[in-house]
Write a structure and sequence with these properties.
The chain is built from twelve helices and 16 strands. With about 375 residues, it is an alpha+beta fold. It has three domains: about 1-140 and about 270-310, Bira Bifunctional Protein, Domain 2 (BirA Bifunctional Protein, domain 2, 2-Layer Sandwich); about 150-240, no CATH class; about 315-370, no CATH class. Strands 1-5-6-12-11-10-7-9-8 form a nine-stranded mixed beta sheet.
Length: about 375
């Protein structure tokens, strides 16, 4: 991994390097309360990854919630019409119930938000920082990009009821072409439109090749404008280190909140997306804010899936010493080992519970190797 070599836990190292990256581009740290009024989440439940929200009543009788999301809190609290762009980053704990679990977890989340006049440069900068974030976490990463305007434009051309649009949108996200065909058949959608919807499930690859294929599906101005934005993005970022970026029109999100670019990031060793973001002007409008917004979050807790073998040891060195040992020599030995970047635990007796790479003992002749574990 590219993360700096230190004795910090992997998650702490990730927070350090990502914070440094975002500050390098002028983003300021945003600090918030652990609590928000429950109404904020009740009115925007479909925006949340998990529908379960932990609530409590404060001393004033107001129903509050432990924060399940950071973006909603920032969106609620920024000025309605900022005079200049708000460029913010955060590292905060959120409280969620993961899919398939009945237990709430405290999850560390790092991310950034750009609010205000989100022009081409702002979008390119956020996408570039998302790519760099992945590269900071792993040498083997992938980011997939889509555009909700292209997808929603195609759905609008089909003139479908809202409920059916949502069903087809989910099918696109699951790459379920058979169900798309079935639903289109029930709704009397023409064969040409049906084939275009099915094609969205397979439109994946480099920007150049995928945009050429998508060009053939354009049905209206909204789709044309979306592809133009993607081409501009590709042209700008071709000069950046974004080789991990791919276009995938099956990446979708809720049309109620997202209206433009959306993206997800993956790294080797983690089975799900470790980064997720997009353009969410619709959310800002829903909250009564006259501004645009784009951002992403990095789910730091997912790093626990990476390099498990590096975490199987509690310490690199277990150093034993006798009760009558020379403490000055012992201190010097510890200083030497830690200076070499090793984690060292010092105690008098061997432990049956600790997992260590090497067992050393300080004797009259210096350090003696008693045991080495691979």
């Amino acid at each position: 991994m590219n993360i700096i070599n230190s004795e910090l836990r992997r998650e702490e190292r990730a927070i350090f390097v990502l914070r440094e990256l975002y500050e390098q581009y002028g983003y300021k740290k945003y600090k918030m309360s652990k609590f928000e009024e429950y109404d904020l989440y009740l009115e925007n439940k479909s925006f949340l990854p998990s529908q379960q929200v932990i609530t409590f009543t404060d001393l004033n009788g107001k129903l509050m919630a432990l924060k399940p999301d950071v973006t909603l809190s920032i969106a609620k609290n920024v000025p309605s019409s900022p005079k200049e762009p708000e460029k913010l980053y955060y590292n905060e704990n959120v409280y969620r119930t993961p899919h398939g679990s009945n237990e709430c977890r405290e999850i560390m989340q790092v991310g950034l938000e750009c609010l205000g006049d989100v022009d081409l440069y702002s979008q390119c900068e956020v996408i570039m920082l998302a790519c760099k974030s992945l590269q900071k976490l792993s040498d083997d990463s992938l980011m997939v990009v889509s555009h909700m305007g292209f997808v929603s434009g195609l759905l609008e051309s089909c003139c479908l009821p809202r409920a059916l649009e949502e069903k087809i949108l989910k099918c696109i996200g699951h790459k379920n072409s058979h169900e798309i065909v079935r639903l289109c058949g029930l709704a009397g959608v023409s064969s040409g439109m049906r084939e275009a919807l099915v094609a969205l499930t397979t439109l994946y690859g480099t920007f150049e090749e995928t945009l050429d294929k998508a060009e053939k599906l354009i049905k209206n101005e909204k789709m044309q404008n979306s592809l133009m934005q993607l081409r501009e993005l590709s042209n700008v970022l071709s000069a950046e280190e974004c080789s991990c970026m791919r276009l995938d029109f099956s990446v979708i999100n809720d049309l109620t909140y997202y209206n433009g670019l959306i993206f997800q990031g993956f790294i080797d060793g983690v089975p799900t997306a470790i980064l997720s973001g997009g353009r969410y002007d619709n959310l800002m409008e829903k909250l009564g804010k006259e501004t645009q917004a784009i951002g992403f979050a990095v789910y730091i807790d997912q790093l626990e899936h990476c390099d498990v073998e590096d975490e199987c040891f509690d310490t690199d060195v277990l150093l034993l010493y006798e009760p009558n040992a020379d403490i000055a020599k012992l201190t010097a030995a510890v200083k030497m080992l830690t200076a070499n970047g090793q984690r060292v635990r010092v105690q008098k007796t061997r432990s049956e519970k600790l997992r260590y790479k090497q067992l050393l003992k300080l004797g009259d002749g210096g350090l003696e190797i008693l045991e080495t574990n691979d």
